[in-house]
Amino acid sequence: MKITNKYLVEAIVFFSYVLFAMAWVGGTASMQSIMLTLDVHSLASASFISGAVTLAKIVGTFIAAWIAIKLGIKYAFFVASLLITIGLLTPYAPNYEWLLLSRFLMGLGGAFMVVYFNPIVLQFFKAEERSTINGINAVAFNMGTAIILWQMQSINQLTGSWQNSLTLFSVLSLAVALLWLLVKFEQPSRASRDQNALPENYTYRQGLTDRFNWLYGLAYSGILAFYICLFTFYPKAGIVQSKWVIGFGIVGTIFGIIYSKKVPLRLPVIRWSGLVVIISTAVFSFSDLYWLQTFAAMVLGFFIFSPVTALVSIPHELPKMTSARITIIFSMFYSISYIISTIILWVFGRLVDINQGDYTGSFILITVLSSTLFIGSYFLPETGHKTKIQQQGS
Questions:
Q1: The model's pTM
Q2: Which residues on neighbouring strands pair with residue 3, listed in sequence order?
Q3: pLDDT tens, 163-211?
Q4: In 3D, which of 73, 87, 82, 66 has the Cα closest to residue 9?
Q5: At what angle do helices 242-262 and 140-159 cross, to 10 degrees?
Q6: Please, are residues 202 and 324 in contact by the beta-carbon 8 Å criterion?
Q7: What contacts 62, CB < 8 A, 6 or more positions away?
Q8: How many CA atoms lie within 13 A of 40 on its CB side?
Q9: 3-class DSSP assignment, residue 376
Q10: Do the domains at 1-185 and 206-384 have one common CATH topology?
Q11: Which homologous superfamily is 206-384 in?
Q12: SS3 call for 327
């Protein structure tokens, strides 16, 4: 039996990443229990796990395209899925080293997978469908995260323990990975491709010299840095409304899908959402009023994710796009973003240390850097077509 229905293919891709998020965030949520089980009490050891995971994301997103070139997208995605199932070791790791390895490999799988979304969408969906599918894929991680943040305790009660819950997530990931092997994935023939398209052997060298790839990654880097800081440092600063960012992020993504379907132009929603993000980041970071911080968290979640569909659609709508090129574009996009975010994260923490635990300087830094999406909107190309708007209005 071969799976050829594109919507079933998309369902497999979507739930693969939802399950990754559930296993990933579920492991993070259970980390205190895991460390106690292993009799590890050092905060440095816990921090090293986070650092290893960040390294996995940087390395994984950068080499994802190379893996795809060697194996093809279908089997590259399968490798990513298998790496994610290694999370099965997390609740049963016999020692700290095995725990570190399981989290690293799992993070590597997630980094691969997020890059492979795009050539899969390019392969199975028509141009007019891609913005919707890209938006659906963009909400997958938030969906899995939201399930854990709101329902992890209930899931643990249902399965009997946090170990059983993490095992269940990994087993389900393995089942979906095996289902993926049934997908009929064929590269388009040369005759069926655009005669003006770039050759399929688009290389890293070409990618590294392409100005767009750098602008694209830089535009997203500030938003990603804030998002990581949100879960890493903000709770330590006494700001605990992170779950509202996740919840309203889902709402924002759904809005972004609908909006991008109705309004083909990409830059306006990116630009104005970026401006709202700067303002709401400042309010969220500096307000002393709990209700105002909560409201700002809701606004942040909505406007961080509402432009994601448009942002991710831009490479798909560039002229002469091929599977090889879009794989390298997103490989660089995430790698650049994570490298810069890691540097910002270190500087954020360093500023807190220098100022004896005062977060003011760090909050100013992250508020300023949250402007990259707004600034980037003035340098990214407008790939939407005004003719579509005119046709919709006629």
A1: 0.84
A2: 183
A3: 999 999 999 999 999 999 999 877 554 434 443 343 456 788 888 999 9
A4: 73
A5: 140
A6: yes
A7: 331, 332, 335
A8: 22
A9: helix
A10: yes
A11: MFS general substrate transporter like domains (1.20.1250.20)
A12: helix
